[in-house]
Amino acid sequence: MCGIVAYIGPKDATPFLLEGLARLEYRGYDSAGVAVTGRTGGIKVRKVKGRVADLAAAVPARFKGATGIGHTRWATHGVPSDANAHPHLDNAERIAVVHNGIIENADELRAKLAADGAVFRSETDTEVLGHLIAAHAAEGVELEEAVRAALGKVVGTYGIAVLDAEQPDRIVVARNGSPIVLGIGEKEMFVASDVSALVRYTRQVVHLEDGELATVRADGFRTFTEDARTTHRQPSTVDWEIDSYDTGGYEHFLLKEIHEQPGSVERTLGGRLDERFATAHLGGLNLDARELREIRRVKILGCGSAYYAGEMGAQLIEELARIPAHSEPASEFRYRNPVIEADTLYIAVSQSGETYDTLAAVQEVKRKGGRVLGVVNTVGSAIARECDGGIYLHAGPEISVASTKAFTSTVVAFALIALHFGRIHDLSPADGRRIVSALKALPDQIREVLAQSDAIAELAAEYAGSEGMMFIGRVRGYPVAREGAQKLKEISYVHAEAYPASELKHGPLALISPELPTVALVPDDELLDKNLTTLGEIKARSGRVLAVAHRRPETKLADHCILVPKSEPELDPLLLNIPLQLLAYHAAVALGRDVDKPRNLAKSVTVE
Ligand code: F6R
């Protein structure tokens, strides 16, 4: 949510700022801006409502400077507009600030600053930071001291980068709840909200901690805390491939990421299956067998698709380990004063590792003495660092706003956790072997589904014009339906409802009509007959049915069918979900939507 970049070094900052912002655009894309310290003094600013490409078109060739900051915005305070776009300046145009996060006491600060003569030119909370830092930047005060003093008065979350026309030899950055990564180059330094903007320039990075600031100069950096204690940070090396940040010949990142799933699932499984004992090795959980046996319940926390992946995870854990498990939106959990039980294991799920609600939920559990594991994609992210242990997905960077490969890898990670827990409890070696073989077969089975992309595109074109769509599934199929509906509405803006198939006749059957088709998950499992009965009930009300199934239902029960390879029943949901990703993608394309950057959304929801 909002992307920040900064550069200081011997080169002109602007090309890096614009390219970096384009890479971070998935974090927010309603307005963008850059500021550089000019060679002849002063700060030059360009900012526009719209995309980074609109900004690039508005930046003249003479817009150059050796020190610069940039921002791509997802509006929280004030509509998308040129005036509300970052960077924001103080009255004297000495200080420029870009900010990701929310300043909770902005109104109070704004009133005080205005009383002291500050003139506000935007509706944003960020603008108070520019005026506040300027108010502390008296003659002879180092920029870092002015920023530190200003942040001492701020309540809220932030990742910021600050430029000072009078101290152009440095950029000061700070982090509290919103990520800031320093990139270390050869006599040049980079800053970004995440590594995707940096990997073309350097692999050596430092992730700032919450409450940490840094003074960044061309020849290095110094980190320190809000109370001015120096911290010592060792750079780490980014190991994600540069190719992951390009569409690689696909029309959209989303399609590329859907097609990457055989490989990303292989990486999630990599080295973790133990055929001899028919279990999974998960050293990162930091839980020995005895501790595991004491766990009586599992509570999974995540937001959006991460929460739905958690629902599939809960199902897997209950089925394979026979431990009661439940998934809850982290955004609700954190606000309801949850009871934290000593014998409950909490598992936080997040692709980005930054989602503020999930992070807050983890902190709430830990504050009350609970144990939290993370199922996280982004190495070194805030949630990964906050957890007591966990599993990295190794799905690779996910750029498209809608989650696909990270979702699938999360479910695979839960299958590994469930297998590991199960084999410590009562899952038999034979059942363990059954799951191990099924997991190994997944990448090829996903390839089989992906091979149907063109046929699914034809179906999507047929159904995309509907006034809405119903998604139904029973027990294991219900989270699949929820995720399928989420994907469709998110990227195609077609209204979609997800219901347990068993609940249809308790109300939503009233919606069924030829204009509201149903996508039905119909696995070949112990509930097949029940699902077929539900299809009959829909058809009897003139509903159209698109079945996603292992066996084609009779034509009188389904108008169309997408066939999916059969796995073990516990793992079927994972494969049933893949055609729904393709269905949503192709529907969005058919409707001419901005597939990778759907309206009103952004990846990494780092605000409440
Ligand atoms: C849906 C989607 C969102 C995210 C959610 C959590 O396609 O991408 O619902 O799943 O915002 O994000 P992470 O997993 O980064 O915590």
Detailed description of the structure:
- It contains 18 helices and 27 strands.
- The chain is α/β, with parallel strands linked by helices and 608 residues long.
- Bound molecules: fructose -6-phosphate.
What level of helicity do the residues show?
25-40%
Helix/strand-derived category reads alpha/beta
Please tally the β strands and state the result.
27
Query: Can you list the ligands bound to this structure?
Result: fructose -6-phosphate
Strand proportion: 15-25%
Radius of gyration: 25 Å
Describe the structure concisely for a colleague.
34% of the residues lie in helices and 23% in strands. It has an eight-stranded antiparallel sheet with strand order 3-2-4-1-10-9-11-15, with helices on one face. A seven-stranded antiparallel sheet has the order 5-6-7-8-12-13-14. Strands 19-18-20-21-22 form a five-stranded parallel sheet, sandwiched between helices. Helix 4 crosses helix 5, helix 7 runs antiparallel to helix 14 and helix 16 packs parallel to helix 18.
Which SSEs are present, and which pair or pack?
Elements: E1 3-8, H1 13-24, E2 31-37, E3 43-49, H2 52-58, E4 67-73, E5 88-89, E6 95-103, H3 106-115, H4 127-136, H5 143-151, E7 156-164, E8 171-176, E9 181-184, E10 189-192, E11 204-207, E12 212-217, E13 220-225, E14 230-231, E15 236-237, H6 253-259, H7 261-269, E16 273-274, E17 279-280, H8 289-293, E18 297-302, H9 305-321, E19 325-329, H10 330-333, E20 344-350, H11 356-367, E21 371-376, H12 382-386, E22 389-392, H13 405-424, H14 429-450, H15 453-463, E23 469-473, H16 477-492, E24 496-500, E25 518-522, H17 528-539, E26 545-549, E27 560-563, H18 572-590
Parallel strand pairs: 18-19, 18-20, 20-21, 21-22, 23-24, 23-25, 25-26, 26-27
Antiparallel strand pairs: 1-4, 1-10, 2-3, 2-4, 5-6, 6-7, 7-8, 8-12, 9-10, 9-11, 11-15, 12-13, 13-14, 16-17
Helix pairs in contact: 4-5, 7-13, 7-14, 9-13, 9-16, 13-14, 14-18, 15-18, 16-18
The chain binds fructose -6-phosphate.
